[in-house]
């Protein structure tokens, strides 16, 4: 997909972070943009900011872990702007399960993490793809996974992002086999300056943890610092738009991780046990490249 002007993009999780960066970049490309988010006030502020720059945008509150809410988003988006050309399944959260081993993580954490990260993307595909495939115009689907979806660990978040990557790969294969004019990408960023560390603010009341998790404060502080010092959402958005134009499937905006990814897959092929080691992002890089 090369031409963006006058076409329509839908972005979930668009009130902040990568989602807002994508919405802003698409608007700068002279697209009509539908911003969707569960946070009503933040969504209103995001839309207002773009409207002040004379962009053609609309905000629609949506809870992506509820299929009916995503279907309503589709209905309202097409009613507002007609054909949809770009869909960004971007909404995501990181449940704070503390230091629990995977077998002790509460079902509420699994339900929330998979509900938003995996099912939110699946529901977006189910709601929008029939329309996008059938209207016959070029289009693109970007699904936000993570480098956690390419490497090991990271608890429920890592599990969900592995599922998202696999979902994206399957979608891409299905589109190609059917000769669709819709192409797709999976976005796998490293650290980006977003609010994902504060995801608990949006946890549904029905999925509250029965016990307060034990948090490793030192590790949490290190993670927050790495996010703060990561790439900016507008940098990621620029990379994504270029990837769409060049029809790149795997969008890897953090080349500082390439050596670690290569080592990880070489270890898989070696058929050896995964080692326990200090996460690479805790080791400062001499070249200044951001993880």
Summarize the structure in words:
This protein is an alpha/beta fold. The protein has helices at residues 17-28, 40-52, 67-81, 107-134, 155-177, 217-228, 233-245, 258-270, and strands at 8-12, 32-37, 57-61, 86-89, 139-144, 182-187, 250-251. α2 (40-52) links the parallel β2 (32-37) and β3 (57-61). α1 (17-28) crosses α7, α3 (67-81) packs parallel to α4 and α4 runs parallel beside α5 (155-177). The protein is globular and about 50 Å long. The two termini are 29 Å apart. The mean pLDDT is 91.
Keywords:
12% strand, 7 strands, 8 helices, Rossmann fold, 291 residues, alpha/beta, globular, seven-stranded parallel β-sheet
Low-confidence stretches: none
Strand content: 5-15%
Within CATH, the superfamily carries the name NAD(P)-binding Rossmann-like Domain
Coarse structural class: alpha/beta
Strand ordering within the main sheet: 3-2-1-4-5-6-7
Topology (elements, then pairings):
Layout: E1 8-12, H1 17-28, E2 32-37, H2 40-52, E3 57-61, H3 67-81, E4 86-89, H4 107-134, E5 139-144, H5 155-177, E6 182-187, H6 217-228, H7 233-245, E7 250-251, H8 258-270
Parallel strand pairs: 1-2, 1-4, 2-3, 4-5, 5-6, 6-7
Please give a quick description of this structure.
The protein is 44% helix and 12% strand. The protein is of the alpha/beta class and 291 residues long.
């Amino acid at each position: 997909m090369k031409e963006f002007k006058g076409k329509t993009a839908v972005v979930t999780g668009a009130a902040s972070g990568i989602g807002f960066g994508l919405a802003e970049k698409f608007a700068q490309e002279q697209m009509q943009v539908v911003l969707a988010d569960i946070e009503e006030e933040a969504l209103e502020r995001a839309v207002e900011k773009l409207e002040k720059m004379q962009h053609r945008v609309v905000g629609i509150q949506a809870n992506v872990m509820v299929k009916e809410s995503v279907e309503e988003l589709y209905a309202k988006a097409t009613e507002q702007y007609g054909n949809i050309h770009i869909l960004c399944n971007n909404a995501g959260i990181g449940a704070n399960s503390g230091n629990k081993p995977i077998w002790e993580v509460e079902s509420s954490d699994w339900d929330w993490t998979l509900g938003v990260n995996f099912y939110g993307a699946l529901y977006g595909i189910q709601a929008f793809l029939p329309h996008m495939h059938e209207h016959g115009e070029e289009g693109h689907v970007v699904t936000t996974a993570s480098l956690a979806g390419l490497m090991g660990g990271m608890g429920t978040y890592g599990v969900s992002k592995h599922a998202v990557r696999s979902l994206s790969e399957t979608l891409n294969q299905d589109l190609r086999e059917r000769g669709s004019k819709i192409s797709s990408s999976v976005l796998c960023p490293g650290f980006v300056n977003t609010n994902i560390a504060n995801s608990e603010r949006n946890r549904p009341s029905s999925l509250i943890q029965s016990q307060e998790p034990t948090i490793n404060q030192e590790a949490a502080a290190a993670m927050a610092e790495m996010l703060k010092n990561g790439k900016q959402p507008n940098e990621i958005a620029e990379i994504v738009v270029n990837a769409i134009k060049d029809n790149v499937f795997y969008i890897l905006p953090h080349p500082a991780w390439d050596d670690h990814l290569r080592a990880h897959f070489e270890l898989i092929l070696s058929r050896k046990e995964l080692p326990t080691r200090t996460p690479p992002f805790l080791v400062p890089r001499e070249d200044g490249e951001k993880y």
